[in-house]
Design a protein that fits this description.
FN3_dom; Immunoglobulin-like; R-tyr_protein_phosphatases; disulfide bond; Ig-like_fold; Complement Module, domain 1; mainly beta; 4 domains; 1 helix; PTPRU phosphatase
Length: 408
Amino acid sequence: ETCQRPRWDSRLRLAPDQENYKENEEVMLSCIDGFQPSFTHVKCVREVQSISHGKPIYRGVWRGRDGRGAWNRIRSNVVCLEVLQVVPGTLEISSTSIKLNWTCRIPDACQHMSATCRLAGPSSPPCEAEEVKGEEMLHGQEGTFTCPPLQPFTDYSVTISLPPSTILFTWLVRTKETVPDKPEKLWLDASTGSLRWKALPSCKGEIIGYQLNITTRSTQDGGFLEMERLRLSSSVTEHPLREHSPGSSYVVTMQGLTAAGAGAVSLWEFQTSSSDTPHPLDIGCHSIRDISPSQGTAVLPLRPIARPPKVAREHQLIVATMHNGTAVEDACWGEPQPFNASRQPGAYVAAVLNLTAPTDFVLGDGTRGQGYHNAALRPGSNYTALLRLVRRSQQAERFTCVCYSFSV
């Protein structure tokens, strides 16, 4: 009995496991899965420690067998080393991929190493995910492993292992969110006068809300245009339409929202008319007759948009040198630029009014104010003027416009 049980790494497993070992008795060392001892085989040997009175004094020491089969004196502790290390800071996750860099710290122990990606749990409708196919063999002492194309917002397990069943690394991860699919079902509930839609499933990301834009044109009240831009909670699946005259035309766009942004736009057009004959969806503006090309003015017969009992609000008068449905919409809920006489003007604010009653307004009289300029009109130009009322809340913006078109 020449050697006592070594006091090395507490995670080491010795076979045979005993308190004392005889000379040249070979011991096999192992560790828990994912770790490898710095020596897999050791043995107890006798070495001369000193000479006393001409006689050698022996003591028991440990030797370990290296990769070439040679036995070398062990001069430090034998420890359990992590076989595989995933390089910190290199884990990359997107909505469709997982990528990591790995390093094998004990090359001899990394033979036949393989990596896989798998669904971390069963999928269920409506968010069914396909199982990832394939297994990649890892070669060398370091490299990069990238999972095959994955699905967004889905849990996967990444595993690197050695045959038959030694797991060197495992990681549970969820791919990042992406924008949601396009809403497919929206309809008008005639009994309640509300828009209704089918809630989007959180397959590509947690649905945090809906972006709803409603454009209303009146076929009876010429020149009327109302545009609503709403941000609704994910729990909401209906929105009441504001009451308008029979025969109003509606254009509705909707997008689902996740933390990654807004998804594709769905568009619907419909009318509240009982007639089978569709009305044109383009807007028709009021015409103006009282025009003075020599003075560069036109008289607009304005009426308040806000009707009693609502409190009168500030109205803007916006002027633009164009007229088509899209351009009128852009001007109605756009942000007009200051008037610039050195270039062809786009949409600009000509006046800010507190309208409480019908009034005739002289457009182009040259007056100025804070943020507006009622600039003289240019002879030979075509104009569109919008009387605009803007109402904003935390969840909604509503732009109501009445348009006038004329030529100077």
